[in-house]
Amino acid sequence: MQVTVLLAFAVATLVELLGLHWVSDKISILNTISLIMLTFLVGVVVGRSWGKEYFEKMQWNLKSRTPPEKGVVNGAVMAVASLLLMTPGIVTDAIGLLILIPPTRIPFLKIASSLARGKVSRGEMYYFFKG
Question: Which of 5, 12, 31, 79 has the fewest CB atoms within 10 Å, i.e. is most exposed?
Fold first, then answer.
């Protein structure tokens, strides 16, 4: 399991670095850095609006073994979008921006909702990690 996670992080880092290199070749290094900073700031703003509160509500739903409401799932997905936008990289920023657009957020909402329902049905009390 640890080797799989380590390999996934290594591949993701390589993909992000290659993406940043490609973008910097197209729009210059200074513009690439500016783009990364802009998406970071957007991620901070979104995170302040949708952050910890919705993860705590999702955690409460799992502990009480009730399926989360649409608003809670939406908030948790938006919080994930803020984390992706704060992570420097092109792929993570693209996924985070897709989540911010309401029509393209629907598949992410379905994934999060089915993941939460599965955890509730299995009786798991934590969404990500035990804490």
Answer: 5
